[in-house]
Write a structure and sequence with these properties.
Two copies of one chain form a homodimer. Chain A is about 35% helix and about 25% strand. By secondary structure, chain A is an alpha/beta fold. In chain A, strand 9 (about 210-215), helix 6 (about 220-235) and strand 10 (about 240-245) form a beta-alpha-beta unit. In chain A, helix 3 packs across helix 17 (about 450-465), helix 5 (about 185-200) runs parallel beside helix 6 (about 220-235) and helix 15 crosses helix 16. The longest helix of chain A has 17 residues, at about 130-150. Chain A is globular, with a radius of gyration of 21 Å. Chain A starts with 15 loop residues before the first strand and ends in a 13-residue tail after the last helix. Chains A and B meet through helix 3, helix 11, helix 14, helix 16 and helix 17 of A and helix 3, helix 11, helix 14, helix 16 and helix 17 of B. Chains A, B: Pfam families: Amidohydro_1 (PF01979).
């Protein structure tokens, strides 16, 4: 089989070997740019599982993926570490394509309220209380939760971003970081965002990449969006922005200015410079004409749980985007809305709700869901050429999942197990950039106990809204 | 506070104490029969969390729930076991109100297909292959998964029921067991179901209770349903039946015979004798007139994940049933469709989809969701007077949940943690009928490794459908 012959350079010596695992090497879906798709796969996608294979990692890259029988004792002896893969699955590290990591500090603090109240009465007044220290602690806690759940990369959008970058650096995680700004801040906001991008792009040994972070198409004016597009092009980075978050925002944009939020991204030059669109649940059919020409640099991060919890009356139109060739990634949004940073949960919920929404149980197959969570998520954060698959030359971001749990047995289908049954607690080891960052379900570089204690002490002050102010008004 | 004064007999000596925990003692929702509901709670429900309380268990019952400061050293010394509750939550054991436990053996074997294909092309042909031994192994695996996830009771519906009863007895779990029958079997099926009920009611030291199990309102004819109602009344047991599983079944029943499936339950006397309705996603407004008069003995088990996965175009109408005073419980259906037996997952998905379906983020509050998972689920399986709350006199079925995981921190809201963030892997200890059945996340009475090995060896034979036969035709 072609799959067994992967490993362009079998003689490359590996410093780290995941030995005799089942390997999810790569996935495919019927998207342009996925030439490997078998002709009979249609829109169903494919997931390539290789039984009894080993993964060799040299430095921060995958060196080879080979049948275990082809790995020599000399190679094992030469490796600094050999991870026992028996009864385990090695898969591409998960990618959280849209979050606000420090918001984990408000987990559970604003429940059972609609979107506008969530912002105006709860979250934006509470965020006024946050210090840089809070941001750092929140980011550490969030990164710890993500790594323990097999999430190796996350696209973050928040203020206090240098603190978050510090947490990324210390934790061993990989991230695409965008400093949030509003036009209400004047030029200071966008200046700060650009300065952060210039300082941190390629930071933490390359694990930090950056994007520009205008908050939204309704909180940043067109002039600032145009400047963002120019700066992003100059820096060669994506822009990460909330746009068409739900159908009401699109309706409001059409009523107020006659164009959809996606057309705003087009008209201000952002689509041309490349965008990570957060949510896009308000994307409409007519938006395809704006998005499709830029499918090589535009993707959408979808966070289904918050759309349901906030009763937004719409989820990301995955079918429409799929047919237009636009990548859709999996995200969790901040844990203040999503309650977890569990990308498995988000993938599962997207698959379930897509079947229901389209009244088609054969749509959004397991393999397609895995493609969204791996290759398409990598594409959405602009790393499709080196993340989201376990193939030689790709960056060594790997989650090693324990398949022995009774809730996964018997194992009729690896794909079904990953999409519909696996839990973050099944993630046993995690590797980012060739470095083991979770070993035996424990974080290697972070100790969260102090951060958790300090955040719990800060809770009353963080929740105090008696000051009567808030970050912004939500009135899209 | 009234909550602190619970414990009708503080002097009752406890053989088992859960010491210094946060205790979810009881929940409330705006349903008739919940007289404790505060006037200001409206439809939102309430959940009573008692911080720094201890739970005393004497024999198989809750003896007292008291502030930790009121528990004496003499009481602790007299107990056979004291479980450290610090940093943990003690809550009523979860109840799976509808499942087919042995179907765990087909987990992941029939994915991405609609309901009719799922039955006719996959599950019913595979079930032809099952032996009594398979049923026993499947039940053991399922019960193990449920206990480890804090599920202390389950309502099961399957064939080979004596094997399942044996697994319940060995495992320490509690169950409501119904032997499945079809009219296509003639009198043999119903005879077998009645005989099982007579033999096992009150079995396993009272942990086994029984129901009668006609498969569905479309696979069991009216004569057999009438006989079922008579036998159920004679035995004083519920009938557990699939009815109005989805809107298409209701439409089909109306087209074929001019009545809804719920009216069939009424007309055959089943509502009067008491019913656990599996799914009820096809219950319509007009059905309320049949259901409401029997709300003290009729409930619905809702399994949202399978409705979404099978694109059934409808979920259980929780609002309609709530307003009619009919209890709704949480269920998982069999793991062949649901992939897990995770009641937390099912509760969460029901809460999320209800908000979305009604376009109301304030509906189906966290407290209401907890009420569905505890008191209403207990009512649905006919045990509302002694399960679903941690109050003196109730049966001692308790899940002790570790709250320290980083994915639950910081802890702004216990209710939000339980509904939107907790994982089965957070369940640390489980007590059923006063007996510790899970300690430190390990099963006390079951060893699943042999069952898992044997089931994995059986997989090819179980999946063989070359015989060309099936249990039934799905054609409601």
């Amino acid at each position: 089989m072609a799959e067994s012959a992967q490993g362009a350079a079998p003689q490359a010596s590996a410093s780290l070997i995941i030995d005799d695992a089942t390997v999810l090497s790569r996935t495919e879906a019927a998207l342009p740019g996925y030439p490997e798709l078998p002709p009979d796969a249609g829109g169903r996608g494919a997931a390539h599982f290789l039984e009894h294979h080993s993964v060799g990692i040299a430095g921060n890259r995958i060196a080879w993926v080979r049948p275990v029988a082809d790995v020599t004792a000399i190679e094992r002896a030469a490796a600094a570490e050999v991870i026992d893969g028996r009864g385990r699955l090695a898969m591409p590290g998960l990618i959280n394509t849209h979050t606000h990591s420090p918001m984990v500090m408000f987990r559970g603090a604003a429940e059972d309220v609609p979107t506008a109240d969530w912002f105006n009465k709860h979250v934006w007044p509470m965020e006024v209380n946050m210090t840089d220290r809070d941001v750092r602690l929140g980011a550490e806690l969030a990164i710890g939760e993500m790594l323990l759940g097999g999430v190796t990369s996350f696209a973050d959008h928040y203020f206090g971003m240098p603190e978050i970058a510090g947490a990324v650096e210390a934790s061993g995680a990989r991230a695409l970081l965008a400093a949030t700004y509003f036009s209400s801040e004047g030029a200071a906001g966008i200046d700060r965002g650009v300065a952060f991008a210039e300082e941190w792009h390629g930071g933490a040994g390359g694990r930090v990449q950056v994007a520009l972070g205008p908050h939204g198409a309704y909180t940043v004016n067109d002039d600032d969006l145009r400047r963002t597009a120019r700066e992003a092009s100059r820096l060669g980075v994506l822009t990460h922005i909330h746009a068409a978050e739900n159908p009401r925002q699109t309706a409001s944009s059409l009523a107020k200015r006659g164009v959809t939020p996606i057309q705003v991204l087009h008209d201000t030059g952002l689509l041309e410079s490349g965008v990570l669109i957060a949510h896009g649940a308000g994307i409409v059919e007519d938006d395809v004409r704006w998005l499709a020409p830029y499918r090589d640099r535009v993707g959408v991060g979808s966070c289904t749980k918050v759309y349901l919890k906030h009763a937004q009356s719409g989820t990301t139109p995955v079918r429409l985007l799929h047919d237009a060739g636009v990548a859709v990634g999996i995200g969790t949004d901040g844990a203040a809305g999503h309650n977890t940073l569990d990308v498995f949960e988000s993938m599962r919920l997207l698959a379930e709700t897509e079947k229901d929404k389209l009244s088609d149980a054969t749509w959004l197959t397991m393999e397609h869901a895995l493609d969204l969570a791996t290759r398409q998520s990598a594409a959405v954060i602009g790393r499709g050429a080196e993340l989201g698959a376990l193939v030689p030359g790709y960056l060594a971001d790997v989650a090693v999942v324990d398949l022995a749990g009774p809730h996964l047995q018997p194992m009729h289908s690896l794909a079904a197990a990953l999409v519909y049954a696996v839990r973050p607690s099944d993630v046993e080891h995690v590797i980012v950039d060739g470095d083991v960052v979770v070993r035996d379900r424990r974080l290697v570089h972070l100790d969260l106990s102090a951060a958790i204690s300090e955040l719990n002490e800060r809770m009353p002050a963080l929740r105090d809204t008696s000051h009567g102010t808030r970050i912004q008004d939500y009135n899209p």
